[in-house]
Amino acid sequence: SFELTQPSSVSVSPGQTVSITCSGDVLAKKYARWFQQKAGQAPSLLLYKDAERPSGIPERFSGSSSGTTVTLTIRGAQVEDDADYYCYSAADNYQAFGGGTRLTVL
Amino acid sequence: DVQLVESGGGLAPRGGSLRLSCAASGFNFSASAIHWVRQASGKGLEWVARITSEANGHRTGFGKPTRGRFIISRDDSKEMAFLQMDSLEIEDTAVYYCRTTEENDFDYWGQGTLVTVSS
Fold first, then answer.
1. What is the pLDDT of residues B78-96, one digit of tens each?
2. Those residues with Cβ within 8 angstroms of residue A71's Cβ, 6 or more apart along the chain or in another chain
3. Which of A13, A55, A93, B81 could pair with B34 in a Cys bridge, judged by C-beta atoms 3.0 to 4.6 Å apart?
């Protein structure tokens, strides 16, 4: 098994840039995914393979990876980006989510 | 469109059992892995179980809190997946999501079903 560690909360002003990190030993050899969960909704895929955006995801969302840490960056944050963000990875027969980061845009 | 619809949630006593179902449509069900992920009120996401596609042998895997108490299964002919939950504990109270994945950006979630375990 493995663990993924995220900050519990971050905040950003509209139009500014914010980054959310996710750390775990597994990330040195396995890809991460990022999910966005807005209040009262199911999670939805934001990024896969550390930095790839599914169709329909705005370009202001980007990802990067270095060693055992992956980073989600939102450039020009919008009010609608106010949500919880989770990293995720899978290895062998085990999977895990990070603890989640509450992003407040105000 | 990909759709996953969970059912079977509700109130169960501590030590009791529940069986959750996930009805799928809009994609090649037999080629996709199916997961159950849960979220307690105000808490984060927790991986519960996964069953791989037919091509990958329908292998199963479980998160630590549920290993040995929960069983995941699927019926590809009916495009349905199941989570049999036995020996329920108060800590199993959560919204349970069905999720399907394939390679790359194929990753979809249902809207969830609420399980409440009472003492």
1. 999 999 999 999 999 999 9
2. A19, A20, A21, A22, A63, A64, A65
3. B81
